[in-house]
Specification:
Blueprint lengths: L3 E2 L1 E8 L3 E9 L2 E3 L21 E5 L3 H4 L10 E8 L5 E2 L7 E4 L6 E8 L4 E8 L1
Length: about 130
């Protein structure tokens, strides 16, 4: 598992559109899924076409999903929705998981490559 962070970024290098969000474990519950089963209520990046990037401050989740607190020390990971394709999640990949720390200036940057159905998520940098 990676170290502390407060920001995540995704670069879409695919020949497909995608959106991304963050999921986390808080007190044994996967969030925001536990309190917001309708993912349309989650904080999403907006649609990224090929070659585009976006950044999310993890503290922004507090306003969007107030019943699903993200607390310092929670394990966080990226979830990428691929339009008409295969999604990618860091939920089962500990190398794609980090520890939320609101005071950290560190960020994890991810890259999606491939196509709608054959794609790869990777950690480009952690700094």
């Amino acid at each position: 598992m990676g170290g502390p962070l407060s920001i995540m970024k995704l670069h879409n290098g695919m020949a497909a559109n995608c959106q991304w969000t963050v999921e986390w474990m808080d007190a044994g519950s996967q969030q925001p899924t536990q309190n917001y089963p309708d993912w349309n209520k989650w904080l999403w990046s907006g649609t990224l076409t090929g070659g585009c990037s976006s950044t999310i401050k993890l503290s922004d989740f507090a306003a969007k999903v107030p019943l699903s607190a993200m607390n310092n020390g929670d394990t966080v990971w990226i979830y990428v929705w691929v339009e008409a394709g295969t999604d990618q999640s860091g939920a089962d990949l500990t190398s794609y998981q980090f520890t939320y720390n609101s005071g950290s200036t560190l960020r994890a940057e991810f890259v999606m490559t491939g196509t709608t159905t054959i794609n790869t998520l990777s950690v480009a940098s952690y700094q």
